[in-house]
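Next comes this protein.

***
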Amino acid sequence: MLEIPESKTISIQSDSMLKGKIVTSVFSPKSPHKFAFFNGDPAGYAGTLEGREIISAKGHGMFVDICFDKDTTLTIGEGTSVRYHPPASQAPDKYQLLITFDDESFISFNVAMYGLIWAYKGRFDNKYHIISLESISPLDDGFNEAYFNKIVHGESRDLSAKALLATEQRIPGLGNGVLQDILFNAGIHPKRKKSKFSDSELHKLFQSLKLTLGNMTDLGGRDTERDLFGQCGKYKTLLSKNTANKPCPVCGDTIRKEAYLGGAVYYCPSCQKL
């Protein structure tokens, strides 16, 4: 899933690798996906994208915007992956969209559980895309402790740590995946209620959020996710499906996995007291 570290990494790679390329052909899904969301019929993307030159790529929240000339954009989000294929590469057996360029390289898009591949001119009238563009990223200096506390105290409900940080896009791009290590590094249980946070815990949570997301991004994303070239990120996740039921890296207790709020949470029962 695209979260802050991956959207930033892929956008930097795309901006470097794709800028200046001109679209020659657009191929519709070779393997249709019920939960791949397009702006109308993807067969019409050829008319929108062919002949367009890539100007830049921008990552924000859970989105990557590939920006073309003529005020045209292709936005991917959530469970959509994009891969770069150099000239003379063989096309993948399955894809939800494939775009070829004037140098005979191409990119392919695949959707896992669900994902967005949205081509459009002008503005993308999507609530979460707009919020993502207008919010301050935790990777930016403007996301300071005062800004973080405003988000926390702006929520009147006594939510759990997971519900507060990883639902409703209060912090765009901070999803359930990156949340696990943020909470672990802060020593906070994912089910711990906001009303139980002490001032020192809230400060530690802010610091963990900034440092963990910064480390994940600096290392090209998490080792559970892949970049533009299909390579896993170099940030070794502490809590994930790969570490469930294994010893905690701090105390040696067993990492637990539980279903909670529509997904899995991972925690150390000794380091993260409820």
